[in-house]
Amino acid sequence: MSLSKLSGLSLVCALVFGLSACAPEVGSEAWCKQMKEKPSGDWTANEATDYAKHCVFK
């Protein structure tokens, strides 16, 4: 693998890990608020299940 490809891959990995660290923990008050503001048509099946479990049926 060339050095430029390796550098690009490292940059992408760093960005992915950096962005995922900013997301609130599933089930937290911040996560419930974030999901409430997100259009329900954009929710995944897992998000809908987690929302019901952690935010509706506490």
Automatic annotation (TrEMBL):
Signal peptide: 1-23
Keyword terms of this UniProt record: Signal
Pfam families: DUF3012
Entry superkingdom: Bacteria
Protein name from the UniProt record: DUF3012 domain-containing protein
Organism: Shewanella pneumatophori
